[in-house]
Write a structure and sequence with these properties.
globular, Lysozyme, 189 residues, 72% helix, 0% strand, mainly alpha
C-alpha cells in the first residue's frame, strides 16, 4: 500500500512538473507571431523584442507600471499618443485619448507601439558598437540619460561593456544587462 501511494505521489509530481513546463512554454511564446510580425516592420531582431517583453512584464498584457506604463512592453501614455499622432490615423488618436489603458492592453497594439519606439530610439545609435545597450537604456531611463552618460566621450566609439559601465542608475544597468544576456542566449539557440 505504501509503495502504491509513493508511486501515485511520484506520478503526480512528475505530471505537475511536466504540466508546469508546458504551461510556461505556452505562456512565454504565446505572442511570438505578433512579436515576429512587428519586429520585421520596425527592423528589429525579434529575439531582442522578446527579451524586452520578458524583462518588462513576463508577457502580462494587463500589467500597469508605477509611472503609468501599460501592457507587455510597458508603453507610456506619452509614447502612445506620439505614435498615434505620427501614424496620422485619427481613429488611433481618438482611441488613445478616450481609453488609453484598454488601447494599450491589446497585445498587438502594445507590441506595435513598443517596437516603433525601440526603433525610433535606436536610430540615433545605429551602427554604434553599443547600439543595443544604448537603445535599451534609452527605452528604460530616457534618451536624455543616455546623452548624460556619454557626454564626455564619443558615444559612437564606446563598446557595449564600456557603455554599460557608464550607466548611472543601477536599475537601468541591471535592466540592460539582463536583457542583453537573455538576448545573447537566444541568439545561441
Amino acid at each position: 500500500m505504501r509503495r502504491y501511494l509513493l508511486f501515485i505521489l511520484l506520478i503526480l509530481l512528475l505530471s505537475s512538473g511536466i504540466g508546469l513546463y508546458f504551461f510556461n512554454e505556452y505562456w512565454i511564446h504565446r505572442y511570438d507571431e505578433i512579436i515576429a510580425r512587428q519586429s520585421v516592420i520596425y527592423r528589429l531582431d525579434k529575439n531582442l523584442v522578446w527579451s524586452v517583453i520578458y524583462e518588462e512584464t513576463y508577457f502580462r498584457a494587463w500589467m500597469l507600471g508605477a509611472a503609468d506604463e501599460v501592457g507587455l512592453m510597458q508603453v507610456t501614455p506619452i509614447v502612445a499618443k506620439e505614435w498615434a499622432k505620427e501614424t496620422g490615423f485619427k481613429e488611433f488618436e481618438k482611441q488613445t485619448s478616450e481609453n488609453l489603458i484598454e488601447f494599450l492592453r491589446d497585445p498587438e497594439r502594445n507590441i506595435q507601439i513598443g517596437c516603433w519606439y525601440l526603433e525610433k530610439l535606436g536610430e540615433k545609435y545605429r551602427d554604434f558598437p553599443a547600439e543595443k545597450a544604448m537603445t535599451l537604456a534609452a527605452y528604460n531611463a530616457g534618451p536624455s540619460r543616455v546623452e548624460e552618460w556619454t557626454k564626455d566621450v564619443q558615444p559612437e566609439k564606446l563598446s557595449e561593456a564600456e557603455f554599460i559601465e557608464r550607466i548611472g542608475i543601477s536599475s537601468t544597468k541591471s535592466y540592460v544587462s539582463s536583457i542583453l544576456e537573455r538576448y545573447k542566449n537566444l541568439k545561441k539557440e
